[in-house]
Amino acid sequence: MARPLRIEFSGAFYHVTSRGNEEKEVFKSQKDREKFLDYLATASSRYGAVIHAFCLMGNHYHLLLETPDGNLSQIMRHINGAYTTYFNSRRKRAGHLFQGRYKAVLVEAEAYATELTRYIHLNPVRAGITVCPETYPWSSYRGYIGQTATPKWLRTGFILDTFALDREQAQKKYQQFVEDLLLTDYESPLKRTVASTLLGSAAFIAGITEQHLVTRRADQQLPALKKLVGVPALDAIIAGVGRAVAPDADLTKKLSLYFCHRYSGANLREIGERFEMSDSAVCQVSRRILLRAQQDERVKAAMEKVALELGLTRV
After folding, report:
1. Could you tell me if 189 and 112 are in contact, meaning their C-beta atoms sit under 8 angstroms apart?
2. Pick from 80, 110, 87: which is nearest to 18 by CA?
3. If one looks up domain 232-310 in CATH, what number appears?
4. What is the dihedral of CA 78, 81, 85, 90, to 10 degrees?
5. Of 190, 195, 192, 197, which is closest to residue 6 (Cα–Cα)?
6. CATH 3.30.70.1290 fits 12-224, yes or no
7. What residue ranges do the domains of the chain occupy?
8. pTM of the predicted protein model
9. Contact 113, 64 (CB under 8 A)
10. Is the sign of the CA dihedral 228, 233, 238, 240 positive or negative?
11. Of 251, 257, 253, nearest to 299 (Cα)?
């Protein structure tokens, strides 16, 4: 499984979900659910997590949370780690409880937070557990509509204040907002997520990319980062190699081909057309220059110089 792209900063909002290993249940009893809510409370008191909405299903959960201290990883280690320890101890088992890494989508709160709370609160309805979200006790919905008191760690105000300043009016309007989709087959807002990482407007995505991702451009192990930031164009790579290696024309060409092959994201046909050679020749030249760099310090130094010029950390 590819390592997920994590973007952390103060004030970030996330939709977080985590599923049971092999789709198995992670909540088997009322005590399990109560214990998980206890860990949400301690995530709030110890690590400053702001929980805006939650829903605990059988084999997964949903959270809408905010990180004033920019510490999502720390918060999630506490929640999933502490709950796993509890669950395993209670049932005398060992090993992973959750399936791989949790999924966290960074959200443009002003545009999507309200819609995401509706999506979260309608989860039991979509799953066929209930026909009315207010009858499901393991979500924040009852607190949102005033049926139950909300715990101190659950913040409903950020969402409710967008409906009305008077709390009772806001609760009624929010309930209507959710019920408007009860009998409809609506599309999940998460389907608009970009690169499995960001949910927001084009301006939001561009801003996050510029502020938090550009400096991480070289991490090729993160497919989401590669998709968001983009990769060097063929012409940009060739120009960079030329600046770093000139005046050695033969080495410049071979290193240009190698870096285009490895880092441009272009396919073999596109690279072959650019260098006027076949697809197989592209692979052969790329492989040979890499082997040569392992044996020839001059070529290795040139390759490292090109990597520095292109802002890459590994070659």
Report:
1. yes
2. 80
3. 1.10.1750.10
4. 90
5. 197
6. yes
7. 12-224, 232-310
8. 0.70
9. yes
10. negative
11. 251
